[in-house]
Amino acid sequence: ARVVEGYRVKPTEENQTVFGDQAHMWAEVKFKEGWVEFDPTPLSLVEKIPTVVKIDRVDERVVEGEYIHIEGSVTGESGFVEIYLKRDKRERGILLGLAEVKKGRFNSSFKVLNVTGKYHVVAHFVGSLKYAESWSDPTVEIYERPKIHLNLPDKIPRKYVARGKIECRELPAYINIYVDGEIYRSTKTDDRGNFEFELNLTDGFHNISIRYDGGRYILPITFNTTVEVGDVEMWLSNYTVIVGR
Asked: Which pTM value belongs to this model?
Protein backbone atom coordinates (compact mmCIF):
# COMPACT_ATOMS: atom_id res chain seq x y z
CA ALA A 1 0.00 0.00 0.00
CA ARG A 2 1.01 3.62 -0.32
CA VAL A 3 -0.06 7.08 0.80
CA VAL A 4 -0.93 9.59 -1.94
CA GLU A 5 -1.11 13.36 -1.69
CA GLY A 6 -3.25 15.43 -4.02
CA TYR A 7 -6.21 17.80 -4.17
CA ARG A 8 -9.94 17.34 -3.83
CA VAL A 9 -11.37 18.84 -7.04
CA LYS A 10 -14.64 18.61 -8.94
CA PRO A 11 -14.89 15.97 -11.71
CA THR A 12 -16.05 18.48 -14.34
CA GLU A 13 -14.84 19.94 -17.63
CA GLU A 14 -15.66 23.45 -16.44
CA ASN A 15 -12.91 25.83 -15.35
CA GLN A 16 -12.21 25.66 -11.65
CA THR A 17 -9.75 27.28 -9.29
CA VAL A 18 -7.90 24.94 -6.90
CA PHE A 19 -6.61 26.29 -3.58
CA GLY A 20 -4.23 25.00 -0.95
CA ASP A 21 -7.00 24.16 1.49
CA GLN A 22 -8.26 21.56 -1.01
CA ALA A 23 -5.14 19.47 -0.35
CA HIS A 24 -6.01 15.91 0.58
CA MET A 25 -4.31 12.61 1.44
CA TRP A 26 -5.59 9.08 0.86
CA ALA A 27 -4.38 5.49 0.56
CA GLU A 28 -3.93 3.20 -2.44
CA VAL A 29 -3.49 -0.58 -2.54
CA LYS A 30 -1.86 -2.40 -5.43
CA PHE A 31 -3.77 -5.22 -7.15
CA LYS A 32 -3.17 -7.05 -10.42
CA GLU A 33 -5.25 -4.42 -12.21
CA GLY A 34 -3.19 -1.60 -10.73
CA TRP A 35 -3.45 0.81 -7.81
CA VAL A 36 -6.94 1.16 -6.28
CA GLU A 37 -7.92 4.15 -4.12
CA PHE A 38 -9.10 3.69 -0.54
CA ASP A 39 -10.06 6.93 1.17
CA PRO A 40 -10.55 6.46 4.92
CA THR A 41 -11.74 10.06 5.44
CA PRO A 42 -15.10 9.95 7.31
CA LEU A 43 -17.98 11.35 5.26
CA SER A 44 -18.83 13.67 8.15
CA LEU A 45 -15.57 15.50 7.53
CA VAL A 46 -16.40 15.94 3.87
CA GLU A 47 -19.80 17.54 4.43
CA LYS A 48 -19.61 21.27 3.75
CA ILE A 49 -21.46 24.29 5.08
CA PRO A 50 -23.95 25.60 2.47
CA THR A 51 -23.22 29.06 1.09
CA VAL A 52 -25.09 31.69 -0.90
CA VAL A 53 -23.24 34.09 -3.18
CA LYS A 54 -25.05 37.27 -4.14
CA ILE A 55 -24.05 40.12 -6.45
CA ASP A 56 -25.38 43.26 -4.77
CA ARG A 57 -24.24 45.74 -7.41
CA VAL A 58 -22.98 45.43 -10.96
CA ASP A 59 -22.78 47.94 -13.79
CA GLU A 60 -25.78 47.38 -16.07
CA ARG A 61 -24.02 48.89 -19.10
CA VAL A 62 -20.29 48.71 -19.83
CA VAL A 63 -18.18 49.90 -22.76
CA GLU A 64 -15.75 47.41 -24.25
CA GLY A 65 -12.19 48.16 -23.14
CA GLU A 66 -13.36 49.71 -19.87
CA TYR A 67 -13.95 48.24 -16.42
CA ILE A 68 -16.97 46.49 -14.93
CA HIS A 69 -17.38 46.95 -11.18
CA ILE A 70 -18.87 44.14 -9.09
CA GLU A 71 -19.79 44.05 -5.41
CA GLY A 72 -21.37 41.17 -3.53
CA SER A 73 -21.52 38.92 -0.53
CA VAL A 74 -20.96 35.28 0.38
CA THR A 75 -22.25 33.55 3.50
CA GLY A 76 -18.84 31.93 3.98
CA GLU A 77 -16.07 33.50 6.04
CA SER A 78 -13.45 33.88 3.31
CA GLY A 79 -12.28 32.53 -0.02
CA PHE A 80 -12.48 33.56 -3.65
CA VAL A 81 -15.21 34.23 -6.21
CA GLU A 82 -14.66 33.51 -9.89
CA ILE A 83 -16.28 36.13 -12.15
CA TYR A 84 -17.43 34.94 -15.59
CA LEU A 85 -19.24 36.46 -18.57
CA LYS A 86 -21.64 33.99 -20.18
CA ARG A 87 -24.21 34.43 -22.96
CA ASP A 88 -25.75 31.14 -21.88
CA LYS A 89 -25.39 30.07 -18.25
CA ARG A 90 -24.60 26.53 -19.41
CA GLU A 91 -21.51 27.51 -21.43
CA ARG A 92 -17.99 27.76 -20.06
CA GLY A 93 -17.89 31.50 -20.67
CA ILE A 94 -15.13 34.05 -20.27
CA LEU A 95 -13.27 34.14 -16.96
CA LEU A 96 -12.66 37.78 -16.02
CA GLY A 97 -10.72 36.95 -12.87
CA LEU A 98 -10.88 36.25 -9.15
CA ALA A 99 -12.37 38.44 -6.43
CA GLU A 100 -11.19 37.82 -2.88
CA VAL A 101 -13.87 37.38 -0.21
CA LYS A 102 -13.08 39.10 3.08
CA LYS A 103 -15.52 38.87 5.99
CA GLY A 104 -18.21 37.68 3.61
CA ARG A 105 -17.81 40.57 1.10
CA PHE A 106 -16.09 40.99 -2.26
CA ASN A 107 -15.51 44.14 -4.30
CA SER A 108 -13.52 44.11 -7.56
CA SER A 109 -13.24 45.65 -11.02
CA PHE A 110 -12.35 43.77 -14.21
CA LYS A 111 -11.47 45.06 -17.68
CA VAL A 112 -13.82 43.85 -20.43
CA LEU A 113 -12.09 43.07 -23.73
CA ASN A 114 -13.20 41.86 -27.18
CA VAL A 115 -16.87 41.21 -26.37
CA THR A 116 -20.15 43.05 -26.96
CA GLY A 117 -23.76 42.07 -26.32
CA LYS A 118 -25.84 40.92 -23.39
CA TYR A 119 -24.11 38.61 -20.91
CA HIS A 120 -24.77 36.98 -17.56
CA VAL A 121 -22.27 38.12 -14.95
CA VAL A 122 -21.69 34.83 -13.16
CA ALA A 123 -20.18 34.91 -9.69
CA HIS A 124 -19.00 31.47 -8.56
CA PHE A 125 -17.88 31.06 -4.97
CA VAL A 126 -15.37 28.26 -5.39
CA GLY A 127 -15.85 26.92 -1.87
CA SER A 128 -13.31 25.04 0.19
CA LEU A 129 -13.11 21.95 2.35
CA LYS A 130 -15.34 23.81 4.81
CA TYR A 131 -17.77 25.75 2.59
CA ALA A 132 -19.79 24.55 -0.38
CA GLU A 133 -19.73 26.39 -3.72
CA SER A 134 -22.56 28.65 -4.92
CA TRP A 135 -23.53 30.79 -7.91
CA SER A 136 -25.14 34.12 -8.82
CA ASP A 137 -25.83 35.53 -12.31
CA PRO A 138 -27.29 39.00 -13.01
CA THR A 139 -26.92 40.40 -16.56
CA VAL A 140 -24.86 43.19 -18.13
CA GLU A 141 -24.94 44.85 -21.56
CA ILE A 142 -21.52 45.47 -23.12
CA TYR A 143 -21.24 48.12 -25.83
CA GLU A 144 -18.58 48.85 -28.43
CA ARG A 145 -17.23 52.39 -28.77
CA PRO A 146 -16.57 52.88 -32.51
CA LYS A 147 -13.87 55.12 -33.99
CA ILE A 148 -14.04 57.52 -36.94
CA HIS A 149 -10.95 58.52 -38.92
CA LEU A 150 -11.28 61.38 -41.45
CA ASN A 151 -8.69 62.52 -44.00
CA LEU A 152 -9.58 66.22 -44.11
CA PRO A 153 -6.93 68.96 -43.82
CA ASP A 154 -7.69 72.26 -42.09
CA LYS A 155 -7.47 74.17 -45.42
CA ILE A 156 -9.28 72.87 -48.53
CA PRO A 157 -10.39 74.20 -51.94
CA ARG A 158 -14.04 74.89 -52.68
CA LYS A 159 -14.47 71.42 -54.12
CA TYR A 160 -12.83 68.61 -52.19
CA VAL A 161 -13.33 64.84 -51.86
CA ALA A 162 -12.95 63.76 -48.22
CA ARG A 163 -12.17 60.17 -47.32
CA GLY A 164 -12.48 58.38 -44.03
CA LYS A 165 -13.02 55.13 -42.17
CA ILE A 166 -15.17 53.92 -39.29
CA GLU A 167 -14.05 51.07 -37.04
CA CYS A 168 -16.88 48.95 -35.62
CA ARG A 169 -18.17 45.39 -35.74
CA GLU A 170 -21.30 46.03 -37.85
CA LEU A 171 -20.26 46.92 -41.40
CA PRO A 172 -21.24 48.36 -43.81
CA ALA A 173 -22.63 51.29 -41.81
CA TYR A 174 -24.59 54.44 -42.62
CA ILE A 175 -23.14 57.81 -41.63
CA ASN A 176 -24.45 61.39 -41.84
CA ILE A 177 -22.37 64.42 -42.82
CA TYR A 178 -23.27 67.83 -41.35
CA VAL A 179 -21.95 71.23 -42.46
CA ASP A 180 -22.41 74.07 -40.00
CA GLY A 181 -25.04 72.09 -38.08
CA GLU A 182 -27.18 71.26 -41.13
CA ILE A 183 -27.42 67.84 -42.75
CA TYR A 184 -25.29 67.86 -45.89
CA ARG A 185 -25.61 64.28 -47.09
CA SER A 186 -25.66 60.62 -46.01
CA THR A 187 -23.43 57.86 -47.23
CA LYS A 188 -22.73 54.18 -46.72
CA THR A 189 -19.37 52.63 -45.96
CA ASP A 190 -18.00 49.58 -47.69
CA ASP A 191 -17.50 46.26 -45.90
CA ARG A 192 -14.23 47.54 -44.42
CA GLY A 193 -15.72 50.77 -43.10
CA ASN A 194 -14.22 53.07 -45.77
CA PHE A 195 -16.26 56.00 -47.06
CA GLU A 196 -15.86 59.19 -49.11
CA PHE A 197 -17.95 62.25 -49.93
CA GLU A 198 -17.53 65.42 -51.99
CA LEU A 199 -17.66 68.85 -50.37
CA ASN A 200 -18.67 71.91 -52.40
CA LEU A 201 -18.45 74.86 -50.01
CA THR A 202 -18.24 78.63 -50.03
CA ASP A 203 -15.20 80.59 -48.91
CA GLY A 204 -14.64 80.91 -45.19
CA PHE A 205 -14.63 78.67 -42.12
CA HIS A 206 -17.01 75.71 -41.87
CA ASN A 207 -17.69 73.12 -39.19
CA ILE A 208 -17.79 69.55 -40.52
CA SER A 209 -19.40 66.78 -38.46
CA ILE A 210 -19.50 63.07 -39.20
CA ARG A 211 -22.09 61.17 -37.18
CA TYR A 212 -22.72 57.45 -36.83
CA ASP A 213 -25.94 56.69 -34.95
CA GLY A 214 -24.73 53.38 -33.58
CA GLY A 215 -26.16 49.89 -33.82
CA ARG A 216 -26.97 46.89 -31.71
CA TYR A 217 -24.59 47.18 -28.75
CA ILE A 218 -22.61 49.88 -30.59
CA LEU A 219 -22.54 53.41 -29.20
CA PRO A 220 -23.20 56.45 -31.42
CA ILE A 221 -20.23 58.69 -32.20
CA THR A 222 -19.66 62.14 -33.72
CA PHE A 223 -16.43 63.44 -35.26
CA ASN A 224 -16.06 67.23 -35.45
CA THR A 225 -13.53 69.40 -37.25
CA THR A 226 -13.26 72.92 -38.71
CA VAL A 227 -11.92 73.72 -42.19
CA GLU A 228 -11.06 76.92 -44.01
CA VAL A 229 -12.28 77.03 -47.62
CA GLY A 230 -10.82 79.27 -50.32
CA ASP A 231 -8.28 79.51 -53.12
CA VAL A 232 -5.43 77.03 -52.75
CA GLU A 233 -2.15 77.72 -54.52
CA MET A 234 0.65 75.22 -54.84
CA TRP A 235 4.17 75.74 -56.12
CA LEU A 236 7.47 73.91 -56.31
CA SER A 237 10.49 75.20 -54.43
CA ASN A 238 12.79 73.50 -56.94
CA TYR A 239 12.47 71.76 -60.26
CA THR A 240 15.05 69.08 -59.82
CA VAL A 241 14.58 66.20 -57.37
CA ILE A 242 16.68 63.18 -56.48
CA VAL A 243 15.14 59.73 -55.97
CA GLY A 244 14.91 58.84 -52.31
CA ARG A 245 15.01 62.48 -51.11
From this structure: 0.69
